[in-house]
Amino acid sequence: MNLHQLFLADLGPELQLTAETLRQASFAVRRNRNEWLLQQRTRAVIEMIAHTADQWLEPGNQFRILALRDGPQETGWSPATLARGLDTFFRSITVESLEALVAQDLGDARRLDDFGAGSAEHRTGRTSLAVGPELLVHLTAGNLPNPALFSIILGLITRSAQIVKCPRDASLLPRLFAHSLAATESKIGACLELVTWSHDEWNARELEDTLFSEAACVTATGSDTMLAEVRPRIPSRTRFIGYGHRMSFGLITKESLSPYSRKRLVRAMADDITAWNQLGCLSPHAYYIEEEASGSAETLAAELADELERREATEPRGTIGLAESALIQSRRSTFALRAAAMASLTERNLNRSLFFDPPATVRLWASTESTAWTVVLNHDARFQPSCLHRFIELKPVRQWSEVLRFAEPFRHLVSTVAVAAPDDRLPDIARQLAHWGVSRICPIGRMQEPPAAWRHDGRPALGDLVTWTDLET
Amino acid sequence: MRPLLALRVSESDQKHGIADPLNPGKSGQTLHGSPKPLRWLSRKTSQMDSRPRPTGLRKGFLQNRMTQSHLILADQVRTLIGRCPKPENLLDAPEPPPADWEAVALNLFALQYETVPAYRLLCNARGRRPEEVRSWLEIPAVPTQAFQELEFTAIEPEARTRVFHSSGTTAQRPSRHFHHAESLALYEESLRPWFAAHLLASEAAFPQGLRPRCLALTPQPANAPHSSLVHMLEVVIQDFGGTGSGFTGRVGGDGAWELDLEATLEALESACANGIPTLVLGTAFLFVHLFDALSAQGRSFRLPAGSRVMETGGYKGRSRSLPRAELHAAIAQQLGDPKIIPEYGMSELSSQAYESGGRFQFPPWVRVRTIHPETGLDTAEGEPGILRIHDLANVWSVAALETTDLGRRHGQSFELLGRAAEAEPRGCSRMTL
Questions:
Q1: CA B31, CA A356: separation in Å to the nearest integer?
Q2: Which among B149, B384, B420 has CB closest to A327?
Q3: Is B121 on the interface with A (CB under 8 A)?
Q4: Domain spans, chain A
Q5: Pairing of strands A247-252, A414-420
Q6: CATH for A247-442?
Q7: pLDDT tens-digit readout, B274-326
Q8: Contact partners, residue B185, CB within 8 Å, separation at least 6
Q9: Is the preceding peptide bond at B54 cis, omega within 30 degrees of 0?
Q10: Does residue A398 register a pLDDT over 50?
Q11: Which residue of chain A comes nearest to B374, CA vs CA?
Q12: Alpha-carbon gap, residue B342 to B316, rounded angstroms
């Protein structure tokens, strides 16, 4: 089975997009939105979305089958990793979770349908209506699919016509999702357009500028350089919401290292590391381990290595690019050399002056004859971005508060911190992390499972899309 | 089979401390003057004849840095360099590596294992000792980034007169490749013939006695003492450069290199005026600075016929980076279509590769492999892999190096696919517009 051609992105690289085609597409989706989508009630739209998400969880669903058949080739994820990532995402999309999102961001689940009033508005004699942008444009990133899929969901809830620009090599999953929405309700497909081009195409800039001039609101996900490049090109009347690079890490307190809790902890860590092979902004780059007795972090690292080896059998990492693989190999050999130096230092009292700066103690566990997984126990606690694809550093610290100092250079980039801590310590840790700038704190093992109502980078994702019309009476 | 290590040590020499005590595991010298580890000791009493053979050992010879052995090996490498074929023959049909290349490589490995403690550590960790290594393919390679952490040198601290750093950003720890007079001499002997073969090879452009004007866009040697590139250009200018040759770059306030625009434009103007073929030498980002300045002023130059440009890759975030084709088009357009010869080198090496016909080639004393990062095995010819470079001119450090660059090997030449090191640091990967 193959997809029929419903969106411009379905036509593949043979289609030479022009600015005129984009303008016509904008006109069409805007007209369809005004004629149909705008007339729908929030509840009805949410039900369509939730129904579609539910369908994706069925093993026999044609879109799911296609995603698992063609996805691994486009994305490099193994079918098991892809299936788990999609299941986690679609399980979080339900009528309840989406209504909770609307209620949380807008005060009430019907604020997009009718003029209404919260208690504060009542007191000031006003009612108000939340209005979504007429045409919403998304520039999506290619690292993993859920942000693009969730952007489409948000745009549907705000009843916006949408144009989604996907990277050339990462359009499959957004297309499949759009097709599945259209299968639920064909008119949704008529309010949605997907396009794709690569930034080195000759008219890429013209195409982008056309989108920007048509849109009422643009969201963009990508590197800070990309956002800085795009931001000044957005017309002043158009709203711009940029989601830049983010990194996440884990924090494990000493109380969580007891042999009893360790087993579950190790599985949870492996869940975080294998989810989308760490490629998302919410995936861990490192775990900080509060170590009371020396050696407890080492035990944890060894057990994590065993667990990752087991996962490789059931949920393999899949193939990665040569450059990525070379980077892992190069990092590994640096750590292996440090580890060997340290070992011989203790065994044979080798001259420490061999090193320019004697390194901290390092131990390395790694898959053999592949780069499938790597665990590094590194007593150098300075935060360093991982090379991802299941490459994780465990960094022992004496007290958790040191972590903020070691991660300081990356403070503005941190999104999520997964914390394993006893109930009596969590509130204090969470408060300090919040004031330091962390926007999401979650249990270990759930880093890549944000709830639908998640405030993206600390901002209300839905609330930021709408504008309000106040009615004073 | 090569001759076994044979040593002449009289008991009285040992007793009086004239020779070192011998133990298995130490290195000595074969009849051919190559270092070789001692496997066992035996004792035989013989009458001295008038022509004592094999070699005697002087006090200190067997100590851990074996200076003399380095000189001997350097001479062996010089022999290889001396046989560097004429450029005309070489560029058309690359010759197979010389037959004794591997013997020198194995000798050098044994010596470096013995005299570079950090290398010995790495070899031991990988379970590769000289006595077990039978082929050059088994010689362990040092990842270039390890030069940032460990001293890969056989030169004693007090003997080091020069150090070359990698050209990373200042915040990173640079690689360190130490030199002294002997190692620099070999470095220079290694660079000359191959540079001449690629940048000066054409009787028409450079008839006998005519020295080209060499314009280096980099800062002067005094201002960039730790740059191997600048040292190389200094040697080039000294040995090959005619009147008007010199450096037209400078070190900016933030420590980064930049063009002295006025000096550069003046030098280019004068080069165009007097008609002598010119070599313009610089890094890609300096050329980008030059072209940005030229287009801002709406100017361009027409270098004299026979002029050449040597461009060495790498942007390191110091300018916007241009795709190669675009950079070369800009060079052609703004400098009057000179021949462009890309160079590939790094501070950890003592030899350079030059590109011709889309492929880089090192001189015959250097061999290149491509390794698949997943399996650690050599990739097939034409298949991409990590570049591993075995440079015999690296006598006093380590010959076998693993780069972070990707390439495709075709015989002894290679296509460069990208410099992986520049990809770092990053957050979520694959974020593309």
A1: 38
A2: B420
A3: yes
A4: 8-244+457-472, 247-442
A5: parallel
A6: 3.40.309.10
A7: 888 999 999 998 999 999 999 999 999 999 988 999 998 766 656 677 788 88
A8: none
A9: yes
A10: yes
A11: A370
A12: 17
